[in-house]
Amino acid sequence: MTRHWHSLKTIFVTLLCISLQNSLFIASSKAVSQSWRAVAQDWWSNQDPDGKPRGSRDSACLITPGRDQRLWNNQPLFVWRGDYRVIGIRKLGDSLLPNTQVATQGRQLPKRLRYDKEPLQAGKTYEWLFFISKNAAKPLDIKPITFQIMGEQERAPITADLKALETRLKAQKATPEEIALQRASYFAQRQLWADVLQEIYSVESPSEALKQETDQILKKVCSPSNQSATP
Predict the structure, then answer these.
(1) H or E element: which one contains 154?
(2) DSSP SS3 for 77
(3) Cα–Cα distance between 168 and 166 in angstroms, integer?
(4) Which of 55, 66, 105, 141 reaches 20 to 30 Å from 127, CA-CA?
(5) What is the CATH number of domain 35-231?
(6) Which residue in 167, 195, 166 sits closest to 182, CA to CA?
């Protein structure tokens, strides 16, 4: 009898542990979902009400970086929707053509391309351009998007904060998506919206909650009411 009761007790404890683990997983997933939604809504509510044009409805919808935004990232992620695959980055006012990069083929919407050349210089302003091919002689007639890499004096403490944040989260066995979420929240607190989107779009295997938010961002940014034809 005692042995039978011990077996039942062991089964009960095991089932209780499994139930608690499942509950914690569901609670954790729900918290991540709500947090991504909060970050995305915070990003959208802080966009310019006059809707600075991000692209042309006839060619490409430019999602990030936005026009005239400051970035912490000196190797930014460029996100756009459209047929064009070749982009270039050059300093504002520079007449020289930049080295170009080519986005991957496929049906991925939107296109994403991280600038993997030499890091952009702190404090400098750059232009984001499109080309018809990698060897094109001039950029396409799409108004360039200008953006600035923040100065080193401002970048340095942010870099230190992010390093400490990532070290702590890794010690807690956080997933890559959870780390990206915390980094996005950090950038949102400082209104660095291009850096927020870089974290949102950089997760390689996003959860369903994150996919839903990126879909909403795409719909909001690239809807006809939020685009303007460029000269």
Answers:
(1) helix 152-171
(2) strand
(3) 5
(4) 105
(5) 2.60.40.10
(6) 166
